[in-house]
Design goal:
The chain is mostly helical. 58% of the residues lie in helices and 0% in strands.
């Protein structure tokens, strides 16, 4: 089942109106070149009232009574491109999700001394060396560790030791 996508929501949410219009223009030029004269006003009207897609016009623009028989391709192309854009975003997000997660995991692992790549060690192709944390970031990590331990009813002394151990396990930026 194909979901009908709100063009206005897609265009406003992601600033993709220009992309949708440009690609739709190419589609309409290839499939219905006779509509190119009206493409701009039709696409402008479409984005102003996308909820009217598929509704029969109240008046026939040409006055010949053929309004119901002739369906303009421009609003259809705009709607299709919006749906395609939404689909492509979902697919790209799924395809890159694992890659991004792996990069993030490598970066986080690299912040700990035991996993940190030394500068003289060659990093794997496509991975960046992790620079480490600055003193403020280490202090923030220490606060988070301490507060979390205290929230779990660990004594202040033990919470401080735990926080210090966590901070000590991280790489300081050089």
């Amino acid at each position: 089942m194909v979901a009908i996508v709100s063009v206005q929501a897609v265009a406003e949410r992601s600033g993709d109106r220009e992309l949708i219009v440009e690609v739709s223009r190419d589609v309409v030029a290839a499939v219905a070149p006779e509509e190119m004269v009206l493409f701009r006003p039709m696409s402008t009207a479409y984005f102003e009232t996308p909820d009217r897609l598929g509704q029969a016009p109240k008046d026939d623009m040409l006055g010949f009574g053929a309004g119901d028989a002739v369906v303009a391709l421009t609003p259809v192309a705009l709607s299709v491109m919006s749906a395609v854009l939404t689909y492509l975003r979902r697919e790209v997000a799924q395809a890159t999700g694992k890659e991004v997660t792996q990069i993030i995991d490598e970066q986080v692992h690299g912040l700990f001394r035991r996993f940190h790549r030394e500068e003289h060690t060659a990093a794997a192709p496509g991975t960046a060396a992790v620079p480490g944390l600055d003193r403020e970031q280490l202090a923030a990590v220490g606060r988070v560790a301490f507060e979390h331990a205290r929230a779990m009813h660990v004594s202040e002394g033990r919470a401080r030791l735990l926080a210090d151990a966590v901070v000590g396990s991280l790489v300081l930026q050089t």
